[in-house]
Each structure stands twice: as structure tokens, then as C-alpha cells.
Amino acid sequence: MKQSQIFTKTQKENPKDEKSINAILLQRAGFIYKEMAGVYSFLPMGLMVLNKISNIVREEMQAIGGQEVDMAILQPKALWQKTDRWDKGIGLEVMYKVKDEQMEVGLGPTHEEMLTDIIKNHIESFEDLPFSVFQIQTKFRKEARAKSGLLRGREFIMKDFYSFHASTDDFKDFYEKAKQAYLKVFERCGLKAIITEASGGDFTKDFTHEFQVISEVGEDTIYYCDCGGFSQNEEVFDKKVTKCPVCGNELKKAKSIELSHIFSLGTKYSEPLGAFFTDKNGVKAPIIMGCYGIGISRLMGVIVETSNDSHGIIWPKTVAPFACHLLPILSGKEEQDKEILEKANSVYNDLQKKGIGVLYDDRSKKSAGEKFADADLIGIPMRIVVSQKTLEQGGIEIKERNSDNVKIIKLEELHV
Amino acid sequence: MKQSQIFTKTQKENPKDEKSINAILLQRAGFIYKEMAGVYSFLPMGLMVLNKISNIVREEMQAIGGQEVDMAILQPKALWQKTDRWDKGIGLEVMYKVKDEQMEVGLGPTHEEMLTDIIKNHIESFEDLPFSVFQIQTKFRKEARAKSGLLRGREFIMKDFYSFHASTDDFKDFYEKAKQAYLKVFERCGLKAIITEASGGDFTKDFTHEFQVISEVGEDTIYYCDCGGFSQNEEVFDKKVTKCPVCGNELKKAKSIELSHIFSLGTKYSEPLGAFFTDKNGVKAPIIMGCYGIGISRLMGVIVETSNDSHGIIWPKTVAPFACHLLPILSGKEEQDKEILEKANSVYNDLQKKGIGVLYDDRSKKSAGEKFADADLIGIPMRIVVSQKTLEQGGIEIKERNSDNVKIIKLEELHV
Questions:
Q1: Domains, chain B, ordered by start
Q2: In this complex, which of B103, B123, B142 lies closest to A36 when CB atoms are compared?
């Protein structure tokens, strides 16, 4: 894509009302726009990143059998009253509510009620179980602390995933599969996630884990051991424990950001909502459920928060809006510039033909310094420069965003 | 995909609270679930159709240069006050409003204000123009008449598209391009759309057209000529006109469903919101805008409304959830059934290898009659049957959903 054709521009100054690095860099680079605290719009390159993250999540959910749906945002009051959450807990504390002449509804902060109500119309016997359902959708939560860019939103994008089982054993098997799928998601997004024992919140205390990433700006605190044998959220940590029960080393304490929370729901929703199945003996029983969330827009924020330098964002290849950023650097001399642009055009066409995503900085009025600064801010993993110097050396200059090494190579030597 | 793995089931009975064909068939076939009047969830096969429609729209918008974004649903009150629409017009009549301790916001029924506010921070001079921006997003509107399934929703999916220009001539050129792109979208979705002169609603009267599809359940009435030379919405029609001004034939009158509305916005939003550019002479001028909408979920409803029979839905190939529906019909005799299933499995594997979408009715307890009835209801374009009879004849039986012709062919003769 040609950079001149993207309507967004970079900003040199930090936005005045933001303190978090993800909000500052994503706005300066033109990925997001702040509508109000905790509410952001995603601009063209921001949406590209969001879609790449969503697709990684989608692939891993489908790999363990997840079926994708898109449920309504508007939540019927009657449904939430059945589980006693309309006037209590999440329904009281974080759900926005809306009225018109004919109805009162909530804006979905989570979808246990709605999905349980849907599936009960489709499930009859143990032969219809197990299965799992996910969606990637905009969610809404009242949020007094919306001060961390994409890390904590009033409006945010979430992948919520629910599983349905005939037995606790079957749920436990699936829970382990989901854990592994989540580790793959975060690894593919370039993040080192720590699986942490946590408190169940609204839910049960068995089978509840969070996926945490260590970060100074995190709101959580975890105690963990590098050996992987121990990790607990401060909420459930017994301060008398100081050493890892597995390897005996001293435990570490760190601030961290919660990427994900997974937990057992048991029959908390299936019973009040009437989601029963007939078991092998012909006996009716409530369906056993599990729930597995990932904040998709938060994940984008976390990636920026943990992968940046003083010049800008450093996108991992897997979620970058483009694989390459192509910068022709003009000399001001007509004949040489013609040659530089011809070479740059041929590199552009060649990469496109190979299906490699490339952002082509075709802006003729920008200086070399401005182009380099923008490239560092935007953070595309591979920078390709075509200039008088590179032509003289018979090639193109490449530099990875996360390294200072500059190399001159021939186009055919480029591997992205 | 194996049918036994999709959690939805078909229903034999029509839902009691629905009168419109699209709502009845889409629910019976398991594509959507009704949460309340005008609010539906999209189940796995429903989301597949929705995604296919969205991708057709996306491709045609990108083909004329549209850049995709995803703007916030929550709308700042201050922004809508600047255009005087918070307490008047659409903001008063159809926008849901929500409060918490810190803010009052609307749920986006349309995004002129928000996008104009975003782009004004990125546009400086005529050199930054023209460009166009679209999103595919859930919208909300208060709706007393939400009785037609996906045709009129309180919560619905819309593609909204906005263009930005330095001159009226440039806008006019783009408006024609958008018209042609829209015709392509509807043609690819299997719909014959009529471009109709319409009233501008909230907006200007110049350059406003609707795309209408003739249907008995439509809420609009149009006067038109088959020659294509004349078509007007009743709202703007002069009843004294009885003959086509182009070919002289008698005009026809019909009920129709509005698929899309496109119109000039002029400087209605750019002026109050301060979206100006510097022209070639260094003079500041407000940006000229156009607006182009398509109801994505409505489009899904219109396709069903105009393409069905007494047995169920007839999906056009381009938006069908799968290209083929594979039905092994068992005989009850062990040896023969083994052969039937082996053949069906090999057809399934072969189609999947070729990248052809196939729904495999692997449900062993369903009778031939139940399988055929479900296939007709779900409406996948091509039905493939493997049975004792087809094996004896050395092949598979194929039947298109919109035809009664049945043919026995060899697998290698199948072209989808």
C-alpha cells in the first residue's frame, strides 16, 4: 500500500491527555483515535493489526473445535434476572443499561446468559455434547479507571469462548486444551505469558487461571518462579510462602498485565437458565460449562507496551500491519531520483507480486529524516531503503526494526 | 464441516412470533436466534453468510479506494451537539443514549460526526484529498416497527462509507464510481437492484439515490420503467407522470425493499466540525463529503426474502455458507452402508482438498427424509447424495437447490 494513500498522518508531539505508552505511541503513529477516556476508534493500520491478532486467536480457537458466532450486543433484562445478575454483581456494577418505549436492555459486558439461552434450544442429549462456541466482539463496561489506553476500556474488543460438557472430566480435558491454545496465541503474538492461579471473581474457585505478562504498568501483582512451577496472583497468594514448591528457589514478585482469564462455570448458568441434557441413563442433568476470555484490543495495547523503544513501536512480524516498509530516499538531483524511484517501484511491485505486505513511503516532499522517524514510530519489522548510496552498492539497504544492523543486499536475497 | 459438529439444529415448526419469511426460515434453519424484536444473534452458519456478504462489500469498497476503519460505537455528546443532532433529528428520534457517573453517550446509529472529527486531525491541504473511508459495524436505532426479521433492526450490521473531496466535481465523479460499485455488490449477491431517485432525508436533495429490490414485503413504493430510464421513490414521485420519459412506456408501480442509500453531504458536517483544507490558492475551505450505506444484515434478510421456496432458503452460490451439502443415505444393511460411508468420506475429503466448502451430513440416526428436508431448509446450492442406488450406477447424485433435475455423475465430473 502506498503511504500517501492512507489518510492518517503521524504526530510528532505526544497527546496531552495520555500517560500510558500504548496510548501515546498508537495515537502518534496514527493507529487509533481517542474518542473519550477508554473509548478508541481503530484507524486503517490499527484495524490491520487488530485483524491479524483476531485471526491468530480465531485459528487457535478453531483448532480446538471452537465454532464462531456473533451474538447480539443488546442483552434482554429478563435473561439476566434469571441468573440474578441484573441488579447484582456485574449487571449492577459494570453493565450500561438503555431504555426505549418498549424495552430495557443492557450492553453486553459478557455473554454467558445469552449463549446458554441460545444453546438450550439446540441441545437434547449427551450425544450433542461436548462443543464450544466463541465470538470476537465489541464489549462494554462501566469503567472509572479508564486511563491506560487500550489496556482498560469502556468499549473494547474481546474474544469470549464458552464450552459445554456432559461431565466434569470432559470439562477438565477441554480446560487443559484451552490453556495450551492460549499459550500458542500469546506466543504467536510475541508475548511471554505466565499462567497464574487466580481468584474466580464472580465464579467458582476451582479451575481459574489468568495469563499474565510482566509489565511495570500492570495493575496486577504476581508471585512466580522462573522454573514455571509456581505462579499466583497476589489475590490468592499466601505470603508465608517464599520459595518455589517445585525447585526451591526464592519466588519473584512482579507487576503484570492480565491478558486472559479462564475458569470453570460449573452449572451456574445452565441451571437457572434451564440448559439441561439427557445423559446415557436417560436422566436429565444441567450442562457443565467453562469460560475463556481474551481481550483482543487489550492484547494490541500489551504488545505495544512491552515492545517499543524511544523512537516508537516495534511490532512482532505476526501482527505488524505490513511486513516491510519501503523508503526511497531522494537526492534532489533529477536523474538520480528517477533511478531511485524506478528501483523502489520495482522493489514494491516485486514484493506485492510475492504477496508480501509492504508500505511504500511514496511521499515526495518528506525528507530522509522525516521518513526514518515515521518508520521508527510506526514500527514495521523490516525497513528497506533505496537511495543513491544503495544503488551505487548495487542493492537495497535493509534494517530490522529491533536491531541497529544495516545491510546492503540484492533484492533477490531478501527473505521476509 | 461435519453437520454433527455444528451445535445448531433445524426446527420443523415456524417460530410463533414471526411473520416475515426471512425471520422464519433463518431461525428454522439455525442461522439466527431472536433475542427480542429487531435483535438477533448470528449462529455459526449465519455468521458464515454474513462474512461472505461483508467480504463482497469489502472487496468492492477497496476496489474504489475505500480504507477500512472500525470506529467506536459510543458517541460523544459534545460532537453531536456541534452538528445540532443530539437533541434533534436522528439523535433525538433514533439514538439510544447511555449515562454513567462520568459521561453521557449515544450508541452510534451513523458515524458522520465521529469520522469528520477524526479526519480533520489528519487533513491539511488539497493534496491530502480525495479519499474515502468505510467500516462494517454493529449499529443501533430505536425502532418501533421491528417486525420484519433482519429487514429492520434495533441492532443491525451496516457498512457505512464516507468520501472526502476538495471540489464538487470530484465528489460527483466519485459518486458515480460508488454507484457502479454498489451495483456490483448487489449483482454478486444475486440481487437485481434498481437505482431510484429518493428524498434526502436529513440531508441534501441533490445526489441522493436508493438501491431498491422489488418485493411484496417492502416498506417502500417505487415507480419505474423496465428500460432503466426512470425510477423514483414514491416520496419524490410526481403522480402526474405516467409514462417513462425515456422510452414512452407506461410506468410500473411496485413495493420494494431499500438495500442502500447514497447521498451528498456537501459541507453539512465539515463546517460545524471544523474539517477544512487549504486549496491550491492557499484559501481555507470546508471539505466536501459524500455518504454511502449498505445494510449488511438487511442484505442477508433480503436475499432470503427474494430467494426461497416452500421448502426453505435458496442461497446464491456467492453467499452460501457452503458450496455443497453431502448426504450419505444409509440402507440399514451393514455391508452396503459401509460402502456408502466410504464413498461419502472420499467425496468429502476430495472436496475439502480442492478447497470447496462442504457440509457433510454425517448424522447416522437421521432418515433420508429428514436429511433431504434439512438440506432444502438450509438451502446450500448443490446437494450431493451417495446411496445404494448411486453406487450401483457408479457415481454420486447431484441436484441444484434451485432446480428439480437430478443427475448421476462421477465425482471427477463435479464442477462447483
A1: 17-309 (3.30.930.10), 324-413 (3.40.50.800)
A2: B103
Bridge-based pairing of strands B396-400 and B308-309 is: unpaired
Residue-level pLDDT, tens digit, chain B, 416 residues:
999 999 999 999 999 989 999 999 999 999 999 999 999 999 999 999 999 999 999 999 999 999 999 999 999 999 999 999 999 999 999 999 998 878 899 999 999 999 999 999 999 999 999 999 999 999 999 988 788 999 999 999 999 999 999 999 999 999 999 999 999 999 999 999 999 998 864 445 667 899 999 999 999 999 999 998 999 999 999 999 999 999 999 999 999 999 999 999 999 999 999 999 999 999 999 999 999 999 999 999 999 999 999 999 999 999 999 999 999 999 999 999 999 999 999 999 999 999 999 999 999 899 999 999 999 999 999 999 999 999 999 899 999 999 999 999 998 888 88
Q: Using an 8 Å CB-CB cutoff, list chain A residues near B76.
A: 35-36
DSSP B316-385: -TTT-S-SEEEEE---S-HHHHHHHHHHHHHHHHHHHHTT--EEE---TT--HHHHHHHHHHHT-SEEEE
- A63 CB within 8 Å of a chain B CB: no
Give buried/exposed letters for A348-367 (b at 16+ CB in 10 A, else e).
beebeeeeebbbbbbbeebe
Q: Which residues of B touch A136 (CB under 8 A)?
A: none
C-alpha cell at A164: 459445554
Instruction: Mark which residues 119-148 of B lie under 8 Å from A by CB.
Output: 119, 121-123, 128, 131, 133, 138, 140, 142, 144
Q: Complex ipTM, two decimals?
A: 0.96
> Cα angle at B74 between B71 and B77, to 5 degrees?
115
CA gyration radius, chain A: 25
- At a CB cut-off of 8 Å and minimum separation 6, what does A222 contact? A194, A196, A212, A214, A231, A232, A233, A234, A253, A254, A256
Distances (CA, A) of A182 to A151, A170, A212: 18, 18, 11
AA identity, residue B331 = S
Put simply, whether A114 touches B (Cβ < 8 Å) is yes
Partner-chain contact B47 A36, CB within 8 Å: no
User: Is A97 an interface residue toward B (CB < 8 Å)?
Assistant: yes
Give how far Cα B82 sits from Cα of A37, B40, B77, B114, B274, Å: 20, 33, 9, 11, 10
Closest Cα in chain B, distance from residue A118 (Å): 7
Quick check: A71 and B41 in contact, CB under 8 A? yes
